[in-house]
From TrEMBL:
InterPro entries: Cyt-d_ubiquinol_oxidase_su_1. Belongs to the cytochrome ubiquinol oxidase subunit 1 family. GO terms for molecular function: electron transfer activity; metal ion binding. This is Cytochrome BD quinol oxidase subunit I. The keyword Phosphoprotein does not apply. It comes from the Bacteria. Keywords: Cell membrane, Electron transport, Heme, Iron, Membrane, Metal-binding, Transmembrane, Transmembrane helix, Transport. GO terms for cellular component: cytochrome complex; plasma membrane. The chain crosses the membrane at residues 15-39, 60-90, 96-119, 131-150, 187-204, 225-244, 264-286, 298-319, 325-344, 351-369, 384-405. GO terms for biological process: aerobic electron transport chain. It is a multi-pass membrane protein. The keyword DNA repair does not apply. It is found in: Cell membrane.
Length: 446
């Protein structure tokens, strides 16, 4: 059998790789975000002497240790599947990014060692807390560096840099046109993703427990997780705009595919998930302001106004540009793409919606943090507020999966042809000779 033609029966090799990658990212993103959140919580516990921070940090570190093996197994399985099913494609990446892959492997190894050491010496370094906190942040740093290496490869696949000589291959391929915005997008996204999941877990435990002390702790956990989740979510519109701008300038056909073409519905779906996260989070903040130690009715009324504006701006974001919603399944109305919807245009309404959502988000969370400084009566949250947190934990997973699919489908260009490396290597692993970034390597090999 010729190399590169191995396939998987029934589902196909593309589905196998997609499932492995998406599952691995869900594990890896949580681990990176959770380690840094736990280290920060431990530091806050050391400074404020509040027991909740220390308890939360230790429990989260324990969960990360248990989760790490599964995430590592998925990563190894994905690499083996990639080598087996796409050998030509992987060999090209290996030639271009050998040093990047090598650094990523050592960063991954360093993260494993430090994370396990960090958790195992928790009691032994109880009287050297500053040193132990440093262990946690070092583990987070190694995770971020490993992520940065992978982001260089992922961004190159969509926007490969034009390389004219062997000497500039590594540098220009690593710092391609979308590497920095993608890395920033994922860095912020890891905190938001982990925060929402923590909030959802806290809500679940709050509803399940009957002990008053435990209800107070899990009420606090939901609050603490949502601050991370929503606080970093509202940064994404600006970072996401920068990332899309880089794609539009470097790979305009890919930009048109996900924003204006047959895959535009995927981006609309992504905005819908973000709308749910924003409204549910703001509603929780409004509810929680009822239980401040010091009554703050004026701030709560301002937060209610913020909730109204959040709903308004999310509506602007989810209105489609035309009546052709999902053409692939025939979901159209009123003439399809020939019927434009004025409020669904990117300029100015989508820009107004995204910018407005971000500004209102900053306003609401600033009010909430101001109230947090005075304290809350814990353990009094309503059931619906906890359901809102659990909804956030579900929809943030949808958001992660949709984001990943949106980025990867951008190279398809309606599959005519679809690319593994944009304008370089097609889905069937055929190398495009003209303008392909791998030409210097091929010339050197000859």
């Amino acid at each position: 059998m010729p190399i590169g033609n191995l396939d998987v029966p029934i589902i196909g090799k593309n589905v196998v790789i997609a499932v492995l990658v998406q599952t691995h990212i869900l594990f890896a993103a949580f681990i990176i975000g959770a380690v840094l959140i736990a280290a920060t919580s431990e530091y806050l516990g050391m400074v404020t002497k509040q027991a909740n921070y220390e308890r939360f940090a230790r429990n989260l570190a324990r969960f990360v240790v248990l989760l790490f093996a599964s995430g590592a197994a998925l990563a190894i399985t994905f690499v083996l599947a990639l080598v087996t099913l796409f050998p030509v494609f992987f060999s090209i990446l290996q030639n271009i990014f050998f040093w990047v892959f090598l650094v990523e492997a050592f960063m991954f190894l360093g993260q494993i060692i430090i994370v396990y050491a960090w958790y195992n010496v928790w009691d032994k370094l109880a009287y050297r807390k500053s040193l132990h906190v440093v262990f946690g942040f070092i583990a987070g740093f190694f995770g971020l560096m490993a992520m940065t290496m992978i982001d260089a490869v992922a961004s190159f696949m969509l926007t490969p840099a034009e390389v004219t000589s062997q000497s500039e291959l590594v540098a220009r391929s690593f710092l391609n046109q979308t590497m920095v915005p993608l890395n920033m997008h994922r860095f912020v996204g890891n905190f938001s993703y982990a925060g929402f999941l923590i909030a959802g877990w806290g809500a679940w435990r709050y509803l399940r427990t009957t002990r008053e002390s435990e209800r107070e702790y899990y009420d606090w956990m939901g609050h603490f997780g949502l601050i991370w989740g929503f606080g970093f979510l509202i940064m994404q519109p600006v970072i996401g705009y920068g990332y899309l701008k880089g794609i539009r300038e470097s790979a305009p056909e890919s930009f048109n595919t996900i924003m204006l073409g047959d895959k535009a519905w995927v981006f609309n779906l992504l905005v819908l998930w973000i709308a749910v996260l924003s409204i549910a989070s703001t509603a929780y903040f409004v509810h929680k302001l009822r239980f401040t130690v010091k009554p703050m009715e004026t701030m709560r009324k301002l937060a209610v106004g913020g909730l109204g504006f959040t709903a308004l701006f999310t509506i602007l974001n989810v209105i489609p540009a035309d009546a052709d919603l999902i053409s692939q399944i025939g979901l159209t109305f009123a003439g399809g793409d020939s019927t434009s919807i004025p409020l669904g245009s990117m300029y100015p309404w989508k820009y107004i919606g995204l910018i407005g959502l971000m500004l209102v988000g900053f306003f609401v969370i600033a009010l909430y943090l101001r109230a947090t400084a005075t304290g809350f009566h814990w353990g009094r949250a309503s059931r619906w507020s906890q359901y809102a947190l659990m909804a956030c934990s579900v929809f943030v997973v949808f958001t992660m999966v949709t984001m990943g699919y949106t980025r990867e489908t951008a190279r398809r260009v309606d599959n005519n042809p679809g690319y593994l490396i944009n304008d370089c290597v097609t889905l069937d692993q055929k190398i495009v000779s003209e303008g392909c970034p791998t030409e210097p390597l091929m010339e050197a090999a000859e």
